[in-house]
Design goal:
single chain; mainly alpha; 0% strand
Length: 92
């Protein structure tokens, strides 16, 4: 499976050096899948599909996107203008 993943990543332009730099492993796909699905299905269903025993484990695999972080930043600025941490730029 590892060689298949490396091959697929190379086909989309992520060379071996970049794979190592970004620490891309087959297990990384679980993190990506969970993050994508978390906003689309309920947590209990996602937890069942992933085989997690607890909601905390499913939460561990969630990673917010830059767009989601920018939305949080906007809401923070609306409620807590100027001197909040939200006034800092969210970068990728």
């Amino acid at each position: 499976m590892t060689e298949s993943l490396k091959y697929a990543l190379q086909k989309i332009g992520i060379n071996t050096l970049e794979q190592e730099k970004r620490n891309l492993r087959f297990h990384s796909t679980r993190h990506s899948f969970n993050s994508i699905m978390a906003s689309k299905v309920d947590n209990d269903s996602l937890r069942t599909v992933l085989g997690h025993g607890s909601p905390q484990m499913t939460a561990h695999y969630f990673h917010a996107s830059i767009e989601e972080l920018r939305l949080v930043q906007k809401v923070q600025l609306d409620y807590f203008p100027s001197k909040s941490i939200a006034s800092q730029e969210v970068s990728s």
